[in-house]
Write a structure and sequence with these properties.
GO molecular function: ATP binding; dynein intermediate chain binding; dynein light intermediate chain binding; minus-end-directed microtubule motor activity
Strand content: 5-15%
Shape: elongated
Distance between the termini: 171 Å
Number of helices: 49
Pfam families: AAA_9, AAA_lid_11, Dynein_C, Dynein_heavy, MT
Organism: Oreochromis aureus (Israeli tilapia)
InterPro entries: AAA_9, AAA_lid_11, AAA_lid_11_sf, DHC, Dynein_C, Dynein_C_barrel, Dynein_HC_stalk, Dynein_heavy_D6_P-loop
Helix content: 40-55%
Low-confidence stretches: 1036-1041
Largest sheet: 5 strands, parallel
Strand order of the largest sheet: 4-5-9-3-10
Protein name: Dynein axonemal heavy chain 1
Length: 1322
């Protein structure tokens, strides 16, 4: 820029002046003048702006010369040299202008400040001097202060040392106190721990034997009873001693593996307190396989349910539709599962669960259940229970589970019952005992916890244990607690002694109740419907205690409880027993009570039930009146110790024994001589059994009356209202039916009385009725109605559903008025649990003709009687028909004498006959007797009859009641005139009055039977009762170490001969066309050989099984039981001929039969044949016909037998007849053969069976039987007469019929039930 603006020039000039830059002299405006020009030099300054700017910063503003200030003053004063003016020209110059002005201003300020600065400098120098002096003083002060601090530190050290020593003193003092406490506390523990250590050392050194015993218990002894387990453990310990296996003194499962606290919790959950049950609990806890409890009384079931309730127990049955799904859930979620009511076989789907077949897959434990894989939770537990009292599990199945016998033991039940009776009678004692048990367990638990805590503290203490105050506190607490516990234990021991002493007083009540329970629980062996649960029994027991009379002394009170409870139970049970079993039950109660008091010898008891085996054979001293059977029984009785000389002394007292034999009340006659004093009331029953078995029932009644009281033999009425009051909404009421009974009418009447007739719905069960019944039941439960399910036995497949429905009834949710009524014939499909817990009543048809007539006439009305066109005839024939109905029903009680097969005629048969009688009388002019007899005898009643001989009998009886003679008002139906026709003008009341006058017990005459029939009936009744008691008997052993079975087997083995040599027989008697008897003999020999082989083989096996050499199979076990009960074993019967003889007689009979064949083989064809000795007599008869047919060349189909009864005895017959054969060995029942008169005649009194004379069978072609003068008498193999029907229409028991001469009509002997029998039952 050559010509800068004035303002810029001014600024540059000012800067140059300030910086002392000389101007350049240039010509001025006026020529020749030189003026100062600062532009050029100033421009030089601006060449390097950075340098210029730096020079401005570094300008020495404090030393600006005065001449510069004076030179710059004009600029300052110049108006144009103002920043504002310059700013208008140049922004850069504005800043330089400001710098110049600032320097100018600063110069004057600096001048004013300078003196002050000098003064400041002087003052600062003074200050510095003063400061130096001060520092010196401070140094001195610091030195003094350092000295003071050292002293202070020394002082503090001394104080700290003092405190430390003081603390150490305090600590030492506290430690001394604590050490004292520690030593004192541990001193008590020392004794206990020392004992524990010694005990543990002892246990460790003996652990091998103890654990081996426990392992044996768990692995093998679960299925056995307590006594057997103890015996096995004893055996094992004996082995330990011999082999030197170390073990503790008295090792047992509970002491080795049982945890008392655990066991106590189990008992609180319902585990019975007896030792066997505790063992069972321990076995189930430690067994590696799942436990299957044999639990007929349901105690294990209850215990498991209570114990596992909080763990979410799944309770399932195999009958549940969803049981596999629920089991799957339990396995998956690790819940316990209880499988109830298993049978003898399990669903194969359970196999993997029982065998615990798990496997790993991708880190998961799995199990295959059915077709699906499921996660297996380690916490899963399984329990199985069965209600079967004596199940037979296969070895394969037994290996999959641990079988545990939870059957109630007498000692276990006794303990429970004792607890109950004491709890009721001495509540404070039982409460105290329970509190003692609980507090003892609690105290032991506390002691254990304290001990554990002490040991934990001691082991975890770091440093000095004396400093662990918590440990000292625990020890002190332990000492106090131990002291308390010792005091309490002493008190507890004293209290326990008092309690036990008081409890012992009530033992007779518990013993009696225990005896009665086992009487009751055994009844199911007699009839499947006789099932009673323990809970039901305990309910009656408790009500017996509550309702029996109180007393001043304990002895009297015990007597009252026992008396009341025994009868109360008897009454309750009798309601559910059939009439034929009531006396048996009363006798069983009486006998078991006496056995407990050792008043009955078990050998004598066995004789009463099963008879005996004669050892010596003496001749019958009174053949004229004493039957062979009675004499054999007396010989058998003489083998017993108390009766050892009975047989020898019998001839001395013949008159006395005959008096008993002839008496109408032989059970009340005194025994002759010293026997009356020597024998007690039970032993006299044994003599009565021998002499007059027909009066044994009355004898038993007297015996029960003498021991228990008259009320135990009186009829117990079952009133619906009584049963109803004892029931509840969850207890079904069950009618156990007999054929031909229906309680519906009685129930509807009762419902009417209770005002429930409109609130009761009924259904007869059968195919397809289940769903209806179920919905009916659900509806009734909600609305509080009654439901009546009839004929449960007809719906066996629906029974598991019914069982589930009843089990699921919750009394809290179901209406309290709801009742379930059931009816069923005895059936093995009826659910046992329902029977056990239900209220049962048996319904039986009335017994006796009088009761039957009464029942029928009670239903009739006067209008009905007078509705016929022939009123008088109708009334007469109606009475006749009703009598016939009663006779047809009541003939059954006489067994085969009445009918071969006991037919179940019903009221329906009678009703249809009454309707037809009325119809035919109204429609026919004359009475159509032939039509009436045909409809009744062949259709209505005869339609049920399957045996031709029974049909013959039925029609013969009917002949007396549908005949013109009965229309006469003075007609009598029996010789005595007791049963007679009455005036037809009488109405229903008149007929009922006549019926009420009839005897309660029917005489045989109305049936057309001989008076001896009553003896047969009474004998059969007595032996049926004894047979029922036999089924309730446990097995026992004899004294000599050998079991009774072994003794019996040894006796039979001695007698049984080896089998026949068949080849030798065939050689001697080859098959010949001319002699069919050879074939008969060979067939008989082969059959007897098969039997002898089975006998020999089974006897050999049973001896080995009894010794334990081979496995006791179920077949051998049944055989052993049969031998024990003097019964022919089933495996022999299967190969043998029909026979009813007891074992001893059967063996003798078999030997006689073999002798008969042996004589035939040795001596040739006998002159007379012992027909009873044939295995298959029909073959012999056919052989006789065949021989005749072949000799005469006649067709065998046209030949029949003619019959001739010989006067000669068997011993007099020495030659074989020309045609036919002689047969002997038959017995007549219902009549006797009069040899002199040569005809059938009436039996002598008390002579039930008589020997038949020799009969000659004469084959004749085209023979016609005579029209009169004979009785066609059937021959049967055994007294039962019934058998299975063969294709011939005859029973397999039937042999042939023979014609016997007689003066009487055929009908007379047919009604007598006369028949010939090959073999008797003794």
């Amino acid at each position: 820029m050559q010509r800068p603006p004035q303002g810029v020039k001014l600024v540059i000039e000012a800067v140059c002046i300030m910086k002392g830059i000389k101007p350049k002299k240039v010509p001025g405006e006026k020529p020749g003048t030189k003026v100062d020009d600062y532009w050029e030099p100033g421009k030089g300054l601006l060449q390097d702006p950075g340098k210029f700017l730096e020079s401005l910063f570094k300008y020495d503003k404090d030393n600006i010369p005065e001449n510069v200030i004076s030179l710059i003053q004009p600029y300052i004063d110049n108006e144009e040299f103002q920043p504002a003016s310059i700013a208008k020209i140049s922004k850069a110059c504005t800043s330089i202008c400001q710098w110049v002005r600032a320097m100018h201003a600063y110069n004057f300020v600096a001048k004013a400040v300078e003196p002050k600065r000098i003064a400041l400098q002087a003052a600062q120098e003074d200050l510095a001097e003063t400061q130096r002096n001060l520092d010196k003083a401070k140094e001195k002060l610091a030195g003094v202060e350092a000295g003071i601090a050292t002293l202070q530190a020394k002082y503090q050290d001394c104080l700290a040392k003092k405190d430390e020593l003081d603390n150490k003193y305090q600590l030492c003092e506290a430690r001394l106190v604590r050490a004292d406490k520690l030593i004192g506390g541990l001193a008590d523990e020392k004794v206990r721990w020392k004992e524990t250590v010694q005990h543990l050392d002892y246990m460790i050194s003996n652990v091998a034997g103890d654990m081996l015993l426990s392992a044996g218990y768990i692995a093998y002894l679960g299925p056995f009873t307590g006594e057997y387990r103890a015996a096995m453990a004893k055996e094992l310990l004996k082995g330990f001693k011999e082999l030197g296996v170390p073990h503790t003194d008295e090792p047992n499962l509970v002491s080795t593996l049982g945890d008392p606290v655990n066991i106590r919790s189990w008992q609180i959950a319902g585990l019975p307190k007896d030792n066997l049950s505790v063992e069972n609990g321990v076995i189930s806890q430690y067994s590696l396989r799942w436990a299957l409890f044999i639990d007929p009384q349901g105690q294990a079931n209850t215990w498991i349910k209570n114990m596992e309730r909080d763990s979410g127990l799944e309770v399932v049955k195999l009958s549940d539709r969803d049981f596999l799904r629920r089991l799957e859930n339990a396995i998956r979620f690790g819940k316990p599962c209880l499988l109830e009511n298993v049978g003898e076989e399990l669903d194969p789907a359970l196999e993997p669960v029982l065998l615990q077949q798990t496997f790993k897959q991708q880190g998961h434990t799995l199990m295959k259940l059915g077709d699906s894989l499921i996660d297996y939770h380690e916490s899963f537990k399984m329990y199985l229970t069965t209600k079967l009292p004596n199940p037979h599990y296969s070895p394969e199945f037994s290996a999959k589970v641990t079988l545990i016998n939870f059957t109630l033991s007498p000692s276990g039940l006794q303990d429970q019952l004792l607890g109950m009776v004491v709890a009721k009678e001495q509540q404070d004692l039982e409460v105290a005992k329970n509190q003692l048990i609980t507090s003892n367990a609690k105290m032991k638990q506390e002691l254990k916890e304290i001990e554990d805590e002490i040991l934990f503290r001691l082991s975890s203490t770091e440093g000095n244990p004396v400093d662990n105050e918590e440990l000292i506190r625990v020890l002190e607490a332990s000492k106090i607690k131990a002291g308390e516990i010792k005091a309490k234990v002493k008190a507890a021991e004293k209290t326990e002694q008092d309690i036990d002493a008081a409890r012992l007083e009530y033992v007779p009540v518990a013993v009696r109740a225990q005896i009665l329970f086992f009487c009751v629980s055994d009844l199911s062996n007699v009839d499947l419907m006789y099932q009673y649960s323990l809970e039901w029994f305990l309910g009656i027991f408790l009500s017996g205690i509550a309702n029996s009379r109180s007393a001043d002394t304990v002895e009297e009170r015990i007597w009252n409880i026992n008396e009341y409870f025994t009868f109360s139970l008897y009454g309750n049970i009798c309601r559910s027993l059939f009439e034929k079993h009531k006396l048996m039950f009363a006798f069983l109660l009486c006998a078991r009570i006496m056995m407990n008091d050792n008043k009955i010898d078990m050998v004598e008891w066995r004789y009463l039930l099963s008879g005996g085996m004669p050892v010596q054979q003496l001749a019958n001293p009174a053949v004229s009146w004493l039957s062979e059977r009675a004499w054999q029984d007396i010989l058998g009785l003489s083998t017993l110790e108390s009766f050892s000389n009975l047989a020898q002394s019998f001839p001395e007292h013949l008159e006395g024994f005959k008096k008993i034999f002839d008496s109408s009340q032989p059970h009340r006659e005194p025994l002759p001589g010293a026997w009356d004093v020597m024998l007690d009331s039970f032993q006299k029953l044994l003599v009565l059994r021998c002499l007059r078995a027909d009066c044994l029932i009355q004898g038993l009644q007297d015996f029960v009356t003498a021991e228990l009281g008259q009320r135990f033999i009186e009829p117990q009425t079952s009133d619906l209202s009584v049963v109803f009051t004892e029931s509840s909404s969850s207890t079904p009421l069950i009618f156990v039916l007999s054929p031909g009974t229906d309680p519906a009418a009685d129930l509807y009447k009762f419902a009417d009385v209770m005002q429930f007739s409109k609130k009761m719905s009924a259904i007869s069960l059968g195919q397809g009725q289940g769903p209806w019944a179920e919905s009916m039941m659900h509806d009734a439960m909600e609305r509080g109605h009654w439901v009546f399910f009839q004929n449960c036995h007809l719906a066996p497949s629906w029974m598991p559903t019914l069982e589930r429905l009843i089990e699921n009834i919750n009394p809290l949710k179901v209406h309290e008025n709801f009742r379930l009524w059931l009816t069923s014939l005895p059936s093995n499909k009826f659910p046992v649990s329902v029977l056990q817990n239900g209220s049962k009543m048996t319904i039986e048809p009335p017994r006796g003709i009088k009761a039957n007539l009464q029942k029928t006439y009670m239903r009739l009305t006067n209008d009905f009687l007078s509705s016929s066109t022939k009123v008088s005839d109708f009334k007469s024939l109606l009475l006749s028909l009703c009598l016939f109905h009663g006779i047809a029903l009541e003939r059954r009680k006489f067994g085969p004498l009445g009918f071969n097969i006991p037919y179940e005629f019903t009221d329906g048969d009678l009703n249809i006959c009454i309707s037809q009688l009325k119809m035919f009388l109204d429609e026919y002019q004359d009475i159509p007797y032939k039509v009436l007899k045909y409809t009744a005898g062949e259709i209505n009643y005869g339609g049920r009859v399957t045996d031709d001989w029974d049909r013959r009998c039925l029609l013969s009886v009917l002949e007396d009641f549908y005949c013109p003679a009965v229309l006469s008002s003075d007609h009598v139906y029996s010789a005595s005139g007791v049963y007679r026709q009455i005036d037809t003008k009488l109405d229903i009341k008149g007929y009922l009055a006549y019926i009420r006058g009839l005897p309660i017990n029917d005489t045989p005459e109305i049936f057309g039977l001989h008076d001896n029939a009553n003896i047969s009936f009474a004998q059969n009744e007595a032996f049926a009762l004894l047979e029922a008691v036999v089924r309730l008997q446990p097995r026992a052993t004899s004294a000599g170490g050998k079991t009774l079975e072994e003794e019996i087997v040894a006796g039979i083995v001695e007698k049984i001969p080896p089998p026949f040599d068949v080849e030798e027989v065939m050689e001697k008697y080859p098959v010949l066309y001319e002699e069919s008897m050879n074939t008969v003999l060979i067939q008989e020999v082969i059959r007897y050989n098969k039997l002898l082989e089975v006998i020999c083989l089974s006897l050999r096996d049973i001896v080995k099984a009894l010794k334990g050499s081979v496995v006791m199979s179920s077949a051998l076990e049944l055989m052993a039981r049969s031998l024990f009960n003097n019964v022919v074993p089933d495996m022999w019967k299967a190969k043998a001929y029909p026979s009813l003889k007891p074992l001893a007689s059967w063996v003798s009979d078999l030997l006689q039969r073999i002798n008969f064949l042996q004589r035939w083989i040795s001596n040739g064809i006998p002159p007379a044949f012992w027909i009873s000795g044939f295995f298959f007599p029909q073959a012999f008869l056919t052989g006789t016909l065949q021989n005749y047919a072949r000799r005469s060349g006649t067709s065998i189909d046209t030949i029949g037998f003619d019959f001739e009864v010989l006067v000669k005895s068997v011993s007099e017959i020495t030659e074989i007849p020309d045609t036919g054969c002689y047969i002997y060995g038959l017995f007549l029942e219902g009549a006797r053969w009069d040899n002199k008169a040569g005809q059938l005649t009436e039996s002598r009194p008390k002579e039930l069976y008589t020997q038949m004379a020799v009969i000659r069978l004469i084959p004749k072609p085209n023979r016609k039987p005579p029209a009169s003068g004979i009785f066609v008498c059937p021959i049967y193999k055994t007294l039962t007469r019934a058998g299975t029907l063969s294709t011939t229409g005859h029973s397999t028991n039937y042999v042939i019929s023979v014609e016997l001469p007689t003066r009487h009509t055929q009908r007379h002997w047919i009604k007598r039930g006369v028949a010939l029998i090959c073999a008797l039952d003794y």
